[in-house]
Amino acid sequence: xxxxxxxxxxxxxxxxxxxxxxxxxxxxxxxxxxxxxxxxxxxxxxxxxxxxxxxxxxxxxxxxxxxxxxxxxxxxxxxxxxxxxxxxxxxxxxxxxxxxxxxxxxxxxxxxxxxxxxxxxxxxxxxxxxxxxxx
Amino acid sequence: xxxxxxxxxxxxxxxxxxxxxxxxxxxxxxxxxxxxxxxxxxxxxxxxxxxxxxxxxxxxxxxxxxxxxxxxxxxxxxxxxxxxxxxxxxxxxxxxxxxxxxxxxxxxxxxxxxxxxxxxxxxxxxxxxxxxxxxxxxxx
Lengths: 135, 140
Known about the structure:
Largest sheet of chain A: none
Order of helices and strands of chain A: HHHH
Largest sheet of chain B: 2 strands, antiparallel
Shape of chain A: elongated
Largest interface: A-B, 11 and 8 residues
Radius of gyration of chain B: 18 Å
Number of strands of chain B: 2
Radius of gyration of chain A: 23 Å
Distance between the termini of chain A: 84 Å
Order of helices and strands of chain B: HHHHEEH
Oligomer: heterodimer
Structural class of chain B: mainly alpha
Distance between the termini of chain B: 20 Å
Strand content of chain A: under 5%
Strand order of the largest sheet of chain B: 1-2
Number of strands of chain A: 0
Shape of chain B: globular
């Protein structure tokens, strides 16, 4: 090892970084692909929402993290906007999923045939009943 | 039935500051990097639209009591004023200057009168976007 020149050792390090960055970006794109397959194959709005909101959030975050590490290592430029974008997507994508699911439920979209329980509907009925008893 | 909006309201309280800081950053980066008055003003207006989605139009009007038509007028005054500033010193209309100033903490800054013009662009863009959206939102 001592005989290796500085340039060679540096190229080994860049090989490791290239491997890590490639891993992040490939896993992120695969997660996005899986989310797309889920959107096509799953039966109703709620399960599709579940697949897309979770898998694309993590997928896009991993792609952005790969880009952040790439520019940090190879261009020696720390892009804080990418970090901010990771944080922003992590905070907003699940909330948009929640709002879409709630809007679908309250406008009366049916669940899939195979679903067995509806806790929100049970709670809403209980609330209606207690309100009518109080009146 | 009045639905419970606590998740969206809590998220808006945190996200609003990130969006506003990003809009200001885009605005000040405009001279050296992509960005500037137009996109900064649009992002700022987008943050206010997020407030309008989360709360209703009266609540937003209560803690941001601006008449957006006045905002447009002030923005146009900024733009024309920087142009007339060129005329006052015997140069052509819209001549701009810059100078280097040493601030105690911030260090060497280059101050440019084009920033004043850009503030005018920001105010006009915010005013126009919010005037359009509020006018459409208020008509029943």
